[in-house]
Queue: 2 jobs
Job 1
Amino acid sequence: MPPFDVPEGDPFGPHNLPYGVFSPAGSTDRRVGVRLGDHVLDAGAAAAALGSPYVSVLARPTLNPLLAAGRTAWSDIRRALTAWVTVPSHQDTVAPLLHPLSAVTLHLPFEVADYVDFYASENHARNVGQIFRPDAADSLTPNWKHLPIGYHGRSGTVVVSGTDVVRPSGQRKAPTDPVPLFGPSVRLDIEAEVGFVVGTPSSMGSPVTLSAFRDHVFGLCLLNDWSARDIQAWEYVPLGPFLGKSFATSVSAWITPLDALEDARIAPPARTHPLLPYLDDAEEEPGGYDLRISVAVNGHTISEPPFSTMYWTAAQQLAHMTVNGASLRTGDLYGSGTVSGPTERERGSLLELTWNGTAPLDLPAGKRTFLEDDDEVTLTAWAPGPNGTRVGLGEVRGRITPAS
Amino acid sequence: MPPFDVPEGDPFGPHNLPYGVFSPAGSTDRRVGVRLGDHVLDAGAAAAALGSPYVSVLARPTLNPLLAAGRTAWSDIRRALTAWVTVPSHQDTVAPLLHPLSAVTLHLPFEVADYVDFYASENHARNVGQIFRPDAADSLTPNWKHLPIGYHGRSGTVVVSGTDVVRPSGQRKAPTDPVPLFGPSVRLDIEAEVGFVVGTPSSMGSPVTLSAFRDHVFGLCLLNDWSARDIQAWEYVPLGPFLGKSFATSVSAWITPLDALEDARIAPPARTHPLLPYLDDAEEEPGGYDLRISVAVNGHTISEPPFSTMYWTAAQQLAHMTVNGASLRTGDLYGSGTVSGPTERERGSLLELTWNGTAPLDLPAGKRTFLEDDDEVTLTAWAPGPNGTRVGLGEVRGRITPAS
């Protein structure tokens, strides 16, 4: 039967099982869904039909109760789901609860508590340094190799894949402009990132150690941190990005549990500087993830950023974010920062790909420095799975609409 | 009868009526309360007893439903509350619903959505510029007079007045240190601010104009944006403050509705630079508020920052924050930035008051550059009210406990 019979090699086979929130065709009801191939399993209905003790966690309109349930529940539920979609005796019960992906509406899968964005790719940071501070002795700021630089973003404008992005307006001022100008951004960019979703909260005053990462973080998703470079350049000294980023951040509709990515775990790049004990992961389990990202504009692939090259791991970011005693809440989201590999075709932003607009990309739709209205950007990714399989991450798609 | 008979001149008389959330003595139940003198009125119970149509908004464990109800409801409810606590015929009904303030527990009054902090005092910005960039031609950055600089903070660590603040640990590196050090902050500071609370949300892509300020903002409170200057100094280039601020932000337990502050509205300082149309308030109603703040350490007043000197108004901050299309949510909180007046005794941070630790304050408890463990900081404020009265803002109190 087709829903169970996911084609060999499908990156959304039963080895993956990412979570989202969907409405069935013709309904506005929101339900937790689990993706299987080109179908979505109504997880709450399946839990009820099969007598799962986790029905109260799964029969909900958002992933937050699942996120809050903690690691033991996450493992139990994943084990149960795997059985539901693979054991033949469940097929008659489960098959009617599978909805074709093409027929459902996908929603932002969880309520975002705090949103933090990092800056953890050395290639990205060096490219940005060379572009904006060409005369500096070092393209990295002095703190870069000692701590994962991050800042808070706007959680209220995190949107699900497929949501249109209105071109933001704002102030900009080139060094040659006598006064600031106001208008639609003319340097609208993407940032290809990976977002990490916190499940288990922590208490104020209690830092989360490197080794507790997997007790607190439920899973990950692709994330596009849309950036208006002209607005950002004028506003960001001295307190950091604000309106250049806060208009929209897109995440995939599917949250991939860390448990699906066991085979993708790898050591991060060799550390070039000694780290303070709370960040020193030399004796820890591998903290990196081998995720192969693709960036496409209007269907044309422009870059393939390798997440394996990130200098700072998600576990280090979590340890840093809480070392001052800041607490975590269920639904906290943090972005890795733009993922850029060492070569030109591996850069995760147009800023880098076009070297600040000086080297336009020649795309089928025409030359591009930054995004034009109606451009559609799609991020996709996969990771190595068990037995040579691929684990697909949910795509992040967004189309630019004209300034309002 | 005492509860109704608030003493003449009490800054929490019936002309004020700020909102909070309390638990009665011996209960963990949370209820919306309205402060009257030294008592708290159980607003939901009063609404029920007096047949108010707003019982569903007031008989709740948080202010969020009231915040979301919108300006017309805010005015109606305030009018009703005023009658309940002043019309003699209501006294028998209302008196039993008044709890002595000393007997109740006060809670964080609303669920904070996004938290943004601004940098809107010219005196503060110039002091900081002179301290950190003594050789710069202008103590203000080039953008300062063109836009209200702001950044996002951590909403999950906003705490109510009275909550202890654990001294944060983190990385610091003085220019003379060969490598960063880790340990408890040795430059723990305060920032005396005013926080604005958003009630009515807005849609993505739809900026909120200057004149719509009072349709969206419900009220204000005092806010202490605790800051670890040593952590901040090492981390903040290039993406702004992060761990130097994210460990705690304290707000008062009482939210003063804007409707209680009509007599405190004043014009902001004269603008020295032309403003872009979306920020130009020359033809708008007065956007400033005459709030007289006091900062005390261990009961000793060290400063009296005047909010009337703020260059950027809360209406301008709201217009700026949304001009790129960023949406507002009920419960969004934004801080004014440190309030500093032109004279030494009007500075809102120890950084300024001690000129970065070079001029210690001589307090009864001993000399202070930055905060020591067990120091308790209290912010209080009042504003001119009708007929020569004073409108009190709820205090913000916090004691420093040793690093964990």
Job 2
Amino acid sequence: MRWSGWGDPAHAVSLPPRLRALLENALGVRPPERPTVTLDEIGLPAPGFDPVGLGAIVGEGYVRTSAEDRIRHTRGKSTVDLLRIRAGAVHDAPDVVVVPGSHDEVLAILDWCTRQRIAVVPFGGGTSVVGGLAPDRTGFAGVVALDLARLDTFEIDPVSRTATLGAGLRAPVAEELLAAQGFTLGHFPQSFEYATIGGFAATRSSGQYSVRYGRFDELVVALRVATARGTVDLGRAPRSGAGPDLRQLFLGSEGTLGVITEVTVRLHRAPTRYAYTGWRFGTFPDGVAALRRLAQDGPVPAMLRLSDEYETALTGPTTDGGCLAVVAYEDGPVPAVEAVLRDAGGTPLGERPGQDWARGRFQGPYLRDALLDAGAFAETVETATF
Amino acid sequence: MRWSGWGDPAHAVSLPPRLRALLENALGVRPPERPTVTLDEIGLPAPGFDPVGLGAIVGEGYVRTSAEDRIRHTRGKSTVDLLRIRAGAVHDAPDVVVVPGSHDEVLAILDWCTRQRIAVVPFGGGTSVVGGLAPDRTGFAGVVALDLARLDTFEIDPVSRTATLGAGLRAPVAEELLAAQGFTLGHFPQSFEYATIGGFAATRSSGQYSVRYGRFDELVVALRVATARGTVDLGRAPRSGAGPDLRQLFLGSEGTLGVITEVTVRLHRAPTRYAYTGWRFGTFPDGVAALRRLAQDGPVPAMLRLSDEYETALTGPTTDGGCLAVVAYEDGPVPAVEAVLRDAGGTPLGERPGQDWARGRFQGPYLRDALLDAGAFAETVETATF
């Protein structure tokens, strides 16, 4: 992961000339006057406390204080985060990065830090875009970034179709391990390539196929949480109608209420493949009406995605105006879905537009880096309707 | 509702002679020595406080202190509750029953009671079986039963397929109003005939068709809650991945954290009818395996219900041993479901066993009254598996 941007530098993209021209000529966008700082240019203060107590818990090799380690654990990957780090602003950097190897070590770290009045920020894939990794230092003697990468356990129950996964397990690794036994989580947010299981839970993550499989929190059967007061185990049965559901406090808590160290999730049978097709609707409201029909009455395919006229014109295939919808299916196209789309005024565009989407499905953050280089600000916002 | 038992006295059932003989001869069950007390025999102390402040809020006609009103708001309908009330034990009776007409009146009542240190127990249909209506008087100057029957508003959004319902609206009334516009909640617990919308939410209710429509809490889009500190409005969007989900604290809270006064729920298109069929499986594990296949891979019908060998022999049709499964479908049988059941070793038994189940689906509590009269103790327990 690039410390000042997204992903694997080898996969960086450059802007298509058409888009570059549009930015410069139509919108007057100019490259930033100051280029991104280099790692060496960033000056970090020495850690504000002596982490020797942490070394006693996890072993000295897992307590890291190098500038690069600390910078790589500074905030997340929102556009604002990137603008700050590109400018060399690292006032949010942790004093120390600690990499525990077990739930019990996390408990011990929280205990030690609580007694020292040191803030702890759980760190999974580092892909947060909502400030979940930005610490509040007020009243604290320092900040520890708690990197959960070593909590990567994997245990599967193929009969009940559940898996108990370490919080630090990366999503692509989890999918690979599950695929070997014919299963999938079906959870593919744009951050998929770097995100972790614990991060999915702590951020109440939503993915590209959530219309079919549910948001990540809907997959969660049980959580193990380390807190400064001890362990909280939540979720004792596949379904429970008894009392308030306290899992729902930790899901979406962004690490503020405790450290999720282990997550038990429901699995889905992995399809043989996903098939993608494109559909054209005359107007955005036409497309919304069609997708609402499927969402309300079914059948619900793996994904339903509608672009407005502007996005369609900018990024889509030649659709002769109108709006592009991309539909993903498990295994292959479902005639009953196609019948609804056709009946609602959709025109099939074949596989190509869907395959184009699938190829670029994790490319958004790479494109954003290129846009920032060109001086253009881009951000993702999400909404929901019935 | 009978004060000492369940439902409409006109619908009371008597035990089939075969069952009565089984109880007496095989199990040695004898009728209780002391018959159920009459309403007149029950001695209630005078209310422990002057409810004049409550009359100022709701109007004197909606503050009730008669013995019958108080006895009818004493605890719920668990078997233990019934044994107590049949014995005339009413130490849990509220001092006063108050029937507010609006959310604001509920707020004012909570404010008044808090200042007087009086406990408030929200009361919907009075069908609780988990002690949610049994007050803890310790440290309180008295107990108010807050009967929500007048909070019966109904507002529907047919495009988004949601309805905002008053907490006191009874389930059959809600279904009737929804059916007039082609919708259903699809929520049919055994308490359906008396339960209320607010009670469904406060108890995290599970129904006979929950495998298809979800538990009631899964239908809830938004909640309005009155607390002693003011109003809490939760659920601002159809879907939200932002932060902890505080609705899940009030769902299942049994009235302890606040008074749910209004619930916005997702609706389903009402089927033209429900069709029921029976299937025979050789053993309970065979039946479990078949139902698990449908639950995990679909398609999921409206209901999947499996009786063990003992229940099948006692109450089911002649199945020549084995276990009876009852399947309910929306509109009509689904061939893909039948194919799975057949492939998993099931033998179709036609419509009769399913229709028998449907006829008796709300009869359990009536049968329990007859069993208690005969001296037999019966209770419902629920479990869940993957």
